Amino acid sequence: xxxxxxxxxxxxxxxxxxxxxxxxxxxxxxxxxxxxxxxxxxxxxxxxxxxxxxxxxxxxxxxxxxxxxxxxxxxxxxxxxxxxxxxxxxxxxxxxxxxxxxxxxxxxxxxxxxxxxxxxxxxxxxxxxxxxxxxxxxxxxxxxxxxxxxxxxxxxxxxxxxxxxxxxxxxxxxxxxxxxxxxxxxxxxxxxxxxxxxxxxxxxxxxxxxxxxxxxxxxxxxxxxxxxxxxxxxxxxxxxxxxxxxxxxxxxxxxxxxxxxxxxxxxxxxxxxxxxxxxxxxxxxxxxxxxxxxxxxxxxxxxxxxxxxxxxxxxxxxxxxxxxxxxxxxxxxxxxxxxxxxxxxxxxxxxxxxxxxxxxxxxxxxxxxxxxxxxxxxxxxxxxxxxxxxxxxxxxxxxxxxxxxxxxxxxxxxxxxxxxxxxxxxxxxxxxxxxxxxxxxxxxxxxxxxxxxxxxxxxxxxxxxxxxx
Length: 469
Hints:
With about 475 residues, this protein is mostly beta strands. Among the domains are: about 110 residues, Immunoglobulin-like; about 160 residues, no CATH class. It has 2 helices and 30 strands. A 5-stranded mixed β-sheet has the order 5-7-3-1-9, with no helix packed on it. Strand 21 and strand 22 form a beta hairpin. The N and C termini lie far apart (about 50 Å). The relative contact order is 0.16.
């Protein structure tokens, strides 16, 4: 559906009413061109770990970063090595003009014994390009034993104004996983319930039909879409809160006759042409329509799927995996896919998102497609809540200030959501920050430091976080 300019203007007004106006750090301070480590500390879960060094914008010239290190209870060549020879206590990492990140590989040769503390601290000692400052995380500590990350600055690779990636960030390790958001279409819940979610990051929508015969040809329905300003259409998308009881697809019944056919609006592809500075372009061409039917298959699922007008269908079985929130499937490619890390291995998801919006009278205006969104992994056990700086300044906030009652009440995955920024006008809110408890019980405070690149491009969030202990 093509919206009129009047509706577009109305939308911008609607969205702006969702956010409390705040001051943006960007209004008074231009971002500095700098280089830093991507995180302050990393736990060495794998034998080989890439150590990332990030630039605040594309490097103006080619050059190299000189890295030095100090070792605690470990020795080079015995307990660890790097892919760039570093026996002398330092090495260089080259970069090309335009680079936004570089990395060297750290290889762990020996594990830490129980109760033994072993780590290596790398420090950016020098950079050959005089135009670039050493800022932010000047050092990173690599822990051989399982210690939660102390925090630091992070820049999830959302991918710019087209926001092509869903980025899953794990606070306790400082690691993130970036997945193209068109990779998956359906997610099959791995817990005790039998629930299926649709991919709200590409604006998918779905409607139940009266039939359970998937081989009957069907036609598309223009009302099954995002952004139609019809509150009734919320029934065609998953609950924005993340509640499993609010999936657009009904709970999969043990009685096959109860499991009906659904037509599926596959949403939009990812555009390839960047948007103008300060804008986004996240909805490309329409991805078409499918039809599906989901049955139980013992302790797993059986998916039937086809093109919407087809007279035959494909069938695939989906096995539950309780280590993950969901097992994912691509209707476009007809194959299972890996789209999320294990449920205990991520806390925040940076993504585009199908949300509910309201009018100025606090009346629902239905579903709409949001950019710059942050989901908290409530299904995996993470919790988060917002703190106004009028109550406690970020720098002064300690573990003693944490409210367990607020964590107990944090049942909505949108507790961060889009509340950290505004888009009309473009601004980053400096009057709030967030407290996150991860599935292991580690508690962090987090504040956003930018939503734009140095050139003003959206889809470049940056935040700082710190372990409370």
